C-alpha cells in the first residue's frame, strides 16, 4: 500500500500521545450530513439526509445507503468517495468469506474486517485515514445489530446512534425516545423525527434516505414513495 | 511545540487539516478554475449536449489540436475542464479501461460505470500521498441502454453525480444559477433545444456571442447513440437559430 517513496506513516503520534490525523478525520465526519441508526426489537433502521449541491443533480443517480450483503446495509457521514472504497472492499470481503465457509458472513465479522481496513489506513505508509464514520445495520442468527465504525478503526455496537453535523442534538433526541421494546415501524418514525430536528428546509422523500432490515433478513432501501407514506404518518 | 497542524504538510500532500479538510483537493479545484475555460452540459429528453470554450492562445497553433472533448469509445464522450495534460492522461486511461471492459464483459461500458471508475481513481489520489489529485473536472456523456441519455460529472475530490444539467470551470456557479432557472420545471428538451440551451447558457454567462470556431460542442442522441463532435457548420446553424430566436 502506498508508494515506496512514502513508506513512512503520515499518521504519527503528537507529543501528547494523540494521533492528530485521526482527530482531523473525525472533524471531517462531523461536518458531513447527519445520519443515524436505531436498533428495534425486530429489526434495524438506518437513515441519512440526502442534500445535493444543486437541483440540477439527478437525485436518482445518488444512493448513500448501500447494501453490503442481502442482510447487511450501511450508511455513512463524511466523505462520499472514501465511503465508496470501503463499500467495495466490504463486498469483496463478504464474498471471500462466503466462498470459504459456504455461509453468509455474520455482521460482527464483516464489521471487524471493515474496521481492520480503516485501521490499516491510519498506520500504513503514504496514506491518510478514511474521512467517514459508518453505521452498519444487519440481521443474522444473533438477531438485529447496529455497529458504528470510526476513522480510527474502532467499532461499537449501539442501540441507537447518530453521526455528522447534528450529532449532539440527534443523540439527545434518541436517548429520550429510545425504548428496548421498540418495533421496526416505530423506529422508522423515530428516525424521521430525529432527522427532522436538525433539518434545514422541507423534509421529503427525495432529500432523505432510509434503509431497513426486518425479521425477513432482507436489507432494503425505501423508495421515495414509501418514505412519503411514513412522513405522512408522522405528521 | 504543538503539532496540531500535522507539521504543516497538510497543504502539500493529501492529509487532513485540523478542520478536517483536504487542502490539496481544494487547490485542485482552484486549478480547474485557473484554466480560464467554462464548460456546460445539458441532458434532454433523448440527447445530451456538452459545450466548452475553445481558446487558442497563439495564432501559430494548429487549431485542430486544441481540444477538450474526447471520445472514450464510439458511444461515450468525455469533456475535460482544467489542466490539459492531466486531462490527456485521464482520457488515455479511460480509453484503456473502456476497451478492457468491452473485451472482458462482452458489452459496452455504460456511462455510469465509466464515471464511477474515474471518480474512484480520483479518490485514490486524495488518499495516497504519492500521487496528487488531477486538476480536471470530467463530464461524461452517453446513452444508457436502460436509462436513456445520461450526463455525469466527476471532480478531483472523487465525487460523481448524474446531472440534468451542469457546469464546470471559471464561471461554474453563474452557469449553474442560469441552468437551475431553465431546468426548474423538469423540461424535456428536444435535441435542438438541448444544444441551444447549452450554447446560450455559455453565451449568457460569459456575456459574449460566439463564432462557430470559438466553441466545441459534443452530442449523443438516442436515435444514433455515437458520440459526435459537431462541425463548425453545424455549430453555425445552432448559433443562427439562437440569435434568430432572441
From TrEMBL, chain A:
<dbReference type="GO" id="GO:0005634">
    <property type="term" value="C:nucleus"/>
</dbReference>
<comment type="subunit">
    <text>The 20S proteasome core is composed of 28 subunits that are arranged in four stacked rings, resulting in a barrel-shaped structure. The two end rings are each formed by seven alpha subunits, and the two central rings are each formed by seven beta subunits.</text>
</comment>
<dbReference type="GO" id="GO:0005737">
    <property type="term" value="C:cytoplasm"/>
</dbReference>
<dbReference type="GO" id="GO:0006511">
    <property type="term" value="P:ubiquitin-dependent protein catabolic process"/>
</dbReference>
<dbReference type="InterPro" id="IPR001353">
    <property type="entry name" value="Proteasome_sua/b"/>
</dbReference>
<dbReference type="InterPro" id="IPR023332">
    <property type="entry name" value="Proteasome_alpha-type"/>
</dbReference>
<dbReference type="InterPro" id="IPR029055">
    <property type="entry name" value="Ntn_hydrolases_N"/>
</dbReference>
<keyword id="KW-0539">Nucleus</keyword>
<dbReference type="InterPro" id="IPR050115">
    <property type="entry name" value="Proteasome_alpha"/>
</dbReference>
<comment type="subunit">
    <text>Component of the 20S core complex of the 26S proteasome. The 26S proteasome is composed of a core protease (CP), known as the 20S proteasome, capped at one or both ends by the 19S regulatory particle (RP/PA700). The 20S proteasome core is composed of 28 subunits that are arranged in four stacked rings, resulting in a barrel-shaped structure. The two end rings are each formed by seven alpha subunits, and the two central rings are each formed by seven beta subunits. The catalytic chamber with the active sites is on the inside of the barrel.</text>
</comment>
<comment type="similarity">
    <text>Belongs to the peptidase T1A family.</text>
</comment>
<keyword id="KW-0963">Cytoplasm</keyword>
<dbReference type="Pfam" id="PF10584">
    <property type="entry name" value="Proteasome_A_N"/>
</dbReference>
<keyword id="KW-0647">Proteasome</keyword>
<protein>
    <recommendedName>
        <fullName>Proteasome subunit alpha type</fullName>
    </recommendedName>
</protein>
<feature type="domain" description="Proteasome alpha-type subunits">
    <location>
        <begin position="6"/>
        <end position="28"/>
    </location>
</feature>
<comment type="function">
    <text>The proteasome is a multicatalytic proteinase complex which is characterized by its ability to cleave peptides with Arg, Phe, Tyr, Leu, and Glu adjacent to the leaving group at neutral or slightly basic pH. The proteasome has an ATP-dependent proteolytic activity.</text>
</comment>
<dbReference type="InterPro" id="IPR000426">
    <property type="entry name" value="Proteasome_asu_N"/>
</dbReference>
<dbReference type="GO" id="GO:0019773">
    <property type="term" value="C:proteasome core complex, alpha-subunit complex"/>
</dbReference>
<dbReference type="Pfam" id="PF00227">
    <property type="entry name" value="Proteasome"/>
</dbReference>
Automatic annotation (TrEMBL), chain B:
<comment type="similarity">
    <text>Belongs to the peptidase T1A family.</text>
</comment>
<feature type="domain" description="Proteasome alpha-type subunits">
    <location>
        <begin position="9"/>
        <end position="31"/>
    </location>
</feature>
<dbReference type="InterPro" id="IPR023332">
    <property type="entry name" value="Proteasome_alpha-type"/>
</dbReference>
<comment type="subunit">
    <text>The 20S proteasome core is composed of 28 subunits that are arranged in four stacked rings, resulting in a barrel-shaped structure. The two end rings are each formed by seven alpha subunits, and the two central rings are each formed by seven beta subunits.</text>
</comment>
<dbReference type="Pfam" id="PF10584">
    <property type="entry name" value="Proteasome_A_N"/>
</dbReference>
<dbReference type="Pfam" id="PF00227">
    <property type="entry name" value="Proteasome"/>
</dbReference>
<dbReference type="GO" id="GO:0006511">
    <property type="term" value="P:ubiquitin-dependent protein catabolic process"/>
</dbReference>
<dbReference type="InterPro" id="IPR050115">
    <property type="entry name" value="Proteasome_alpha"/>
</dbReference>
<dbReference type="InterPro" id="IPR001353">
    <property type="entry name" value="Proteasome_sua/b"/>
</dbReference>
<dbReference type="GO" id="GO:0019773">
    <property type="term" value="C:proteasome core complex, alpha-subunit complex"/>
</dbReference>
<dbReference type="InterPro" id="IPR029055">
    <property type="entry name" value="Ntn_hydrolases_N"/>
</dbReference>
<dbReference type="InterPro" id="IPR034642">
    <property type="entry name" value="Proteasome_subunit_alpha6"/>
</dbReference>
<keyword id="KW-0539">Nucleus</keyword>
<dbReference type="InterPro" id="IPR000426">
    <property type="entry name" value="Proteasome_asu_N"/>
</dbReference>
<dbReference type="GO" id="GO:0005634">
    <property type="term" value="C:nucleus"/>
</dbReference>
<dbReference type="GO" id="GO:0005737">
    <property type="term" value="C:cytoplasm"/>
</dbReference>
<comment type="function">
    <text>The proteasome is a multicatalytic proteinase complex which is characterized by its ability to cleave peptides with Arg, Phe, Tyr, Leu, and Glu adjacent to the leaving group at neutral or slightly basic pH. The proteasome has an ATP-dependent proteolytic activity.</text>
</comment>
<keyword id="KW-0963">Cytoplasm</keyword>
<protein>
    <recommendedName>
        <fullName>Proteasome subunit alpha type</fullName>
    </recommendedName>
</protein>
<keyword id="KW-0647">Proteasome</keyword>
Amino acid at each position: 500500500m502506498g508508494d515506496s517513496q512514502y513508506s513512512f506513516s503520515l499518521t504519527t503520534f503528537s507529543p501528547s500521545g494523540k494521533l492528530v490525523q485521526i482527530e482531523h478525520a473525525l472533524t471531517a465526519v462531523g461536518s458531513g450530513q447527519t445520519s443515524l441508526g436505531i436498533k428495534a426489537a425486530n429489526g434495524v433502521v438506518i437513515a441519512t439526509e440526502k442534500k445535493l449541491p444543486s437541483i440540477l443533480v439527478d437525485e436518482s443517480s445518488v444512493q448513500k445507503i448501500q447494501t453490503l450483503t442481502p442482510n447487511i446495509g450501511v450508511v455513512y457521514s463524511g466523505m462520499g468517495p472514501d465511503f465508496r472504497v470501503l463499500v467495495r472492499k466490504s463486498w469483496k470481503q463478504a464474498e471471500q468469506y462466503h466462498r470459504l465457509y459456504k455461509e453468509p458472513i455474520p455482521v460482527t465479522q464483516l464489521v471487524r474486517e471493515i474496521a481492520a481496513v480503516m485501521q490499516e489506513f491510519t498506520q500504513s505508509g503514504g496514506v491518510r485515514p478514511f474521512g467517514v464514520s459508518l453505521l452498519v445495520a444487519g440481521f443474522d442468527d444473533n438477531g438485529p445489530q447496529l455497529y458504528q465504525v470510526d476513522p480510527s478503526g474502532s467499532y461499537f455496537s449501539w442501540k441507537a446512534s447518530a453521526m455528522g453535523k447534528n450529532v449532539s442534538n440527534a443523540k439527545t433526541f434518541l436517548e429520550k425516545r429510545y425504548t428496548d421494546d421498540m418495533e421496526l415501524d416505530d423506529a422508522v418514525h423515530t428516525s424521521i423525527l430525529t432527522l427532522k430536528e436538525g433539518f434545514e428546509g422541507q423534509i421529503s422523500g427525495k432529500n432523505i434516505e432510509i434503509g431497513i432490515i426486518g425479521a425477513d433478513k432482507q436489507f432494503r432501501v425505501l423508495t421515495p414513495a414509501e418514505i412519503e407514506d411514513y412522513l405522512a404518518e408522522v405528521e | 511545540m504543538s503539532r496540531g497542524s500535522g507539521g504543516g504538510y497538510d497543504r502539500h500532500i493529501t492529509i487532513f487539516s485540523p478542520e478536517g479538510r483536504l487542502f490539496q483537493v481544494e487547490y485542485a479545484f482552484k486549478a480547474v478554475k485557473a484554466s480560464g475555460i467554462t464548460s456546460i452540459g445539458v441532458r434532454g429528453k433523448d440527447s445530451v449536449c456538452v459545450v466548452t470554450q475553445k481558446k487558442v492562445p497563439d495564432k501559430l497553433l494548429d487549431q485542430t489540436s486544441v481540444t477538450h472533448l474526447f471520445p472514450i469509445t464510439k458511444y461515450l464522450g468525455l469533456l475535460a475542464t482544467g489542466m490539459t495534460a492531466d486531462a490527456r492522461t485521464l482520457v488515455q486511461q479511460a480509453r484503456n479501461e473502456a476497451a478492457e471492459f468491452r473485451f472482458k464483459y462482452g458489452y459496452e461500458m455504460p456511462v455510469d460505470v465509466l464515471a464511477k471508475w474515474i471518480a474512484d481513481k480520483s479518490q485514490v489520489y486524495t488518499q495516497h500521498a504519492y500521487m496528487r489529485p488531477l486538476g480536471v473536472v470530467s463530464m461524461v456523456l452517453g446513452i444508457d441502454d436502460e436509462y436513456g441519455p445520461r450526463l455525469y460529472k466527476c471532480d478531483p475530490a472523487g465525487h460523481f453525480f448524474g446531472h440534468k444539467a451542469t457546469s464546470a470551470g471559471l464561471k461554474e456557479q453563474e452557469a449553474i444559477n442560469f441552468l437551475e432557472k431553465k431546468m426548474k420545471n423538469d423540461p424535456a428538451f428536444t435535441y435542438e433545444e438541448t444544444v441551444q440551451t447549452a450554447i446560450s447558457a455559455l453565451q449568457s454567462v460569459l456575456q459574449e456571442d460566439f463564432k462557430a470556431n470559438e466553441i466545441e460542442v459534443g452530442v449523443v442522441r438516442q436515435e444514433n447513440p455515437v458520440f459526435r463532435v459537431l462541425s463548425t457548420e453545424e455549430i453555425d446553424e445552432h448559433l443562427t437559430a439562437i440569435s434568430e430566436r432572441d
